Structures are given as C-alpha cells and as structure tokens.
Amino acid sequence: VDLSVDEEIAALRRRRRAVIVAHNYQPAPVQDIADYVGDSFELSALASQTDAEVIVFCGVHFMAEAAALLAPGRTVVLPDLRAGCPLADTVSPEDVRALRARHPRAAVVAYVNTSAAVKAEADLCVTSANALRVIEALAEDEVIFVPDANLGNFVARHTRKRLITWNGTCRAHNAVRVDDVRTARREHPDAPIVVHPEVPPAVAERADAVLGTGGMLQYVRTHEARRFVIGTEAGILHRMRRENPDKEFHLLSASLWCPTMKYTDLAGVARALRDLEPRIEVPPEVATRARRALERMLELGRRREGG
Ligand code: 13P
Q1: Which parts of the chain register pLDDT below 70?
Q2: Which residue of 29, 174, 193, 263 shows the fewest CB atoms closer than 10 Å?
Q3: Cross-strand pairs, 20
Q4: Strands of 193-195's sheet, edge to edge?
Q5: From the CB of 113, is ligand 1 less than 6 Å away?
Q6: What letter would DSSP give residue 60?
Q7: Is the distance from CB of 101 to CB of 94 less than 8 angstroms?
Q8: 231: which strand partners?
C-alpha cells in the first residue's frame, strides 16, 4: 500500500510508542502533525515527564540533547542532524571553565541554548521564560551568564546582581534594528510590538513587551489588541494565526528566520520514526552534571515569567 507521509507518521508513531514534539519555530506542516508544540522550557519539562518510548524532537540539536538528558532510558531522535544552533556554538566548556577561574565567587548560569558539555560546566540552566526569576533566586550576587549577550543584558537591566556576560548572539534576533521598530510603529500604530530578549537592547527598550516564545503566545491570546508585531523567529506566526484566527500578526524584521530550524520536514520525521536515527545521546560523565543543571532549572523555573 502507498501511504501518504501523514499516514505513515501516524502508523509509525503508534508502533514506536513515540511522541512528536516541535518547537514554536518549526515549519507549519511539522507543527501540525506534532503531539506538542512549545517553547524550550515547556518541551524540556515535557521530556522529563513523558511515558513515550521514543521522543522525536523537531527543533535544534541542543533541545534534543536536553530532552535526552531529562528522559534517560528513552530514545531521542532529531530528524536532521544539521539542525544546530550557531548561538549555542559560540561557547565551549573550556570558555566556561576559564570564566569560572576568573570569577570564582560567581554562579555559572547557562542559557538552555548550549551544548550538554557546556551545561555540565554550569551550576544551572535557564530559558528565556525563566531567566530573570531564576537568576534573582540565586544566593550569589555575581553571575556568569553564557552565551547570549542580549539576554544577559536584558536580565542585567532588571536585577541588582552583577552579570558577567559572553559575547554570543543569535544571528536572526540580533539583526533586528531600531529602524524596524520605527517602521512598524508607522505602519501599524495600534499594534503592540512584542520581542524576544535575544534582540539587541536598543530594540528591546523600544518594544511593548519582551518575552520568550511561550510568553508571547500567551500575550497575544489575552491582549485586547487585534494586531501585533512579532519580534521573534517567523515560524511562531503559524501558531499565533492558528490560535487567534481573528487577530493579525506581522513580523518585525525579515531577518527573523532561522535556517537550521527549517531542516525538519515530514519526510525526515517519518524516516526518524522508521530508523530511530539520528539518535541523540550524551556520554554518561557529561550527562550526570548537565542533567543536574537542567533539573535545577526545572525546580526553580516551573512558573513561567516574561523575559
Ligand atoms: P524560547 O525558549 O523562547 O522558546 O526560545 C527558543 C530559542 O531557541 C530562542 O533562540
């Protein structure tokens, strides 16, 4: 029989006892067949709780690694191994060890957009949904934060703690300009502008809200405005439009497009379910330490907060 790719995915998903999860930035057809679509924090929490034997992670490599760390004994597959995160690649475990040696009293906080090897060098992880609250809750007054400089600056402006930041940025978010905000205000004067904390500080300062992707989805759902300008990766517009068919969404800048998020397609999902490859595994000595950093985040970060 000749099955459509959707039917093949449905049959394999049952046979493999698999769950398909997708990040809010994934292409529309992938979001539509996923069991769950969410932000990095929600997908990590989900991985830590699932009964499924297989997790097909439609997102980028560090997210699948986090799922593998939080769901020991389960099989985690990433449909396309090319789906990396250039931001995560800006910092190495050696870089973190050097920072710690220079600032021995500081807590080391790794954004979830890091490799498992970097997480293993950190005291705990954060996502953009909980960075500010988790950092505020730390006993230390000094905090090393890697790798996103813009998110680090955002947190620094809202806390009295001293942040030591790294110079990593997300190419898509960091390319948003103040001029994009000016143009959006002119073209859509009634629309709130909502941006991700990975945008440059000058852009974040001029926005109406600075939120992670989960926070943005909640903001547009509950806000009375009919029209919004969105300053994060374009893939999120699909979910916003699907959940709010009576509202209008515009992208803040054409730069907001992540090439590696787009490697996932339905053929790749079907192949991953059939072959249980490419499999994401973390060596045990790294996994034990990296898992601890993620679990501390889950404990401290269950309640979502903007920023
Ligand atoms: P969220 O945690 O807001 O989903 O962001 C994901 C991400 O990778 C941004 O770079």
Answers
A1: 1, 301-307
A2: 29
A3: 56
A4: 209-210, 193-195, 227-231, 248-251
A5: yes
A6: -
A7: no
A8: 195
